[in-house]
């Protein structure tokens, strides 16, 4: 699934995001509101990842998540 689809279905995607990155809060997900760059930033902040690692995890998640 590409990010435009994820952004369009953000309410449904939030649950899957929480499954993958459980340290993200509901407030984080509301603030992110489907914006890919904001999700990457929150993953970096909560997990202490580099930008590259956050981006790689997001690419894997996009590729592997079933809807």
Automatic annotation (TrEMBL):
Residues 4-55 form the CsbD-like domain. Belongs to the UPF0337 (CsbD) family. It comes from Cupriavidus cauae. This is CsbD family protein.
């Amino acid at each position: 699934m590409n990010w435009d689809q994820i952004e369009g279905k953000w309410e449904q995607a939030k649950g899957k995001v929480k499954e993958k990155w459980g340290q993200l809060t509901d407030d984080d997900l509301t603030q992110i509101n489907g914006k890919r760059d904001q999700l990457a930033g929150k993953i970096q902040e909560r997990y202490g990842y580099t930008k590259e690692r956050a981006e790689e995890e997001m690419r894997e998640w996009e590729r592997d998540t079933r809807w």
